[in-house]
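Morning!

As promised:
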Amino acid sequence: MKPITVENIVKTYPAKNGVVTALKGISFAVDKGEIFGLIGPDGAGKTSLFRILTTLLLADSGSASIDGFDVISDYKQIRKRVGYMPGKFSLYQDLSVQENLEFFATIFNTTIKENYDLVKEIYQQIEPFKTRKAGQLSGGMKQKLALCCALIHKPSVLFLDEPTTGVDAVSRKEFWEMLYRLKVQGITMLVSTPYMDEASLCDRVALIQKGELLSVNTPKGITGEFKKPLWSVKANDMFRLMNDIKKDASVESCYPFGQVHHVVFKTQENSKEELERIAYTGNYSEVEINLIEPNIEDCFMALMQA
Amino acid sequence: MRMLKFLLWKELIQIYRDPSIIMILFIMPMIQLLILPLAADYEIKNINLGVVDHDHTEYSRKLVNKVVSSGYFRLKDYSPTFQQGLKAIESDKTDLILEIPPHFERDLVKENQASLFVAVDAVNGVKAGLGGAYIQRIIQGDNQDIRTQWMPEQRLNPQPVIEVTTADWYNPNMNYRVFMVPGILVMLVTMIGSSFASNNIVREKEMGTIEQINVSPIKKMQFILGKLIPFWMLALVVLTVGLLIARFVYGIVPLGHYITIYIFATIYLLAILGLGLLLSTYAQTQQQSMLVSFFVTMIFNLLSGLYTPIESMPAWAQMITRFNPVSYFIEVMRMVMLKGSGLADIKYQILALVGFAVFFNSWAILNYRKRSG
């Protein structure tokens, strides 16, 4: 029995002209103690899926279960055993850190004392501010408090909807370290994020785009699916370079990636020579051309175009 | 039970921490109760009087003096012709013209009768009606005086006159405040009941905290009770403050029991809070819930009999007032405070309010969904 199973979930919303399909028949399953990443841009349907799995939203069709309990018929059981951390900070801003934690412990019929072990490490970091109102905490501390509140009833499955959006790089790293510690305790986690670099931190990821799953695999597996060589190009006039590369008939795709452009060719032969020729005819200086390993973002770009 | 206690604790902490709520809760009723009953008075005073006297005799002067000394009228214009008197009305200088025809005294003495002409500016209907009535009463009184002056020696009145003497029961001095303060108090309690609770729930929607509550195993009933009880308590506190003001500022001591008022207020608040909850289940933003509850309470207050007697409304409007919980509370407040009615006298109103409470609350509970479609 898998902690999370999703079968053919379809969700539509009424819109001005017809309907908007947020989820177009999504299926996947998550193993126990796994950190499963849901990676996709804004509007891909991540939050809709989270709300369906946390029994807040009814799907149009399809079925889903958490710990073997159906999200529609056994929703009461599910509400006892899941933790949900919504993307938007939604704790009581006018209650203090401790009062928030106590409140969420109480509405889940438990006490802070009972499950203190689970949140101890995270809570200790915000404990110095426990009398401060939640609304006055920094972004990173708010996320820690929200995680504590989602964990206080010892859930077996944790849903984290974009937990690191709007959080600084250091706090993001700390946050993921906390998730690893929870994984050791056997908690299954479904994490969504728009950041591709966080995908490699998950055990398995699902790439989602416009309500469809593009690929479900381990981060290694996903990058392994990328068969064609990937080139990074750098020169003095990056904008003109991109246009020149895109004009070439043998180029499949070219997109900016940090300080370089990533280029994929349709065929595999002579691609380096082709790039050198473009650089030479365009009179570029400081040209650097390297063969690189693809990362998740490259795979995502390739899958999106496919 | 522990959960409910905690929900209440959390709600009270939040209210206590929000200084604007405390301000609105206590300062608004005090100001309204201290200002409104004194300012919003039905008695029309200071009606501007214009006189067109064609007679210029002792009788006409006496009549004008009598009108002015009544306290209701202020002599603002004294014109030689009616045309000029009308000009004064047109320029808003006067509200009412009393025209005394030539030979008024002569006709009265010789022919035993004389006529007067009264023209009233009816732009403000209430003022016109009352002003006309006042002046008629004064003139009638003057007429009576003249008659007694002329026939002092006659024991029996040759022309029998029906004299009407009125006794004002329950409010012997026709003190307007005694009648207005309980009504305004009801209005205040209604505003707190209907808009505060609904705003509070909608705020949770806006903040997203309701999502966190919805994924928890907490029961609908517990959540709704956790919202009802704190505002029910607050409204009773405001009612108490209002009753204290009524007693110590206006000296209004209810003839009936305070307990009767509180018992009825308890049931009434359940109905009004239920209405607030119902609004909150439909509204998505605080703005929506504010506007709707403002609209509803305004209609309720205007159709409650606070300002205009229900009996003088058209039949269809009277039907509407039967579905207006506010009208029942205002009626009961006045009955208990002025007439000393007990629980037995208001059982019909209690029954109606229990009906409202059940209706609004069950609709709200049915419509409150922990998950959406």
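The two ends of chain A are 34 Å apart (CA to CA).

Hope this helps with the figure draft.
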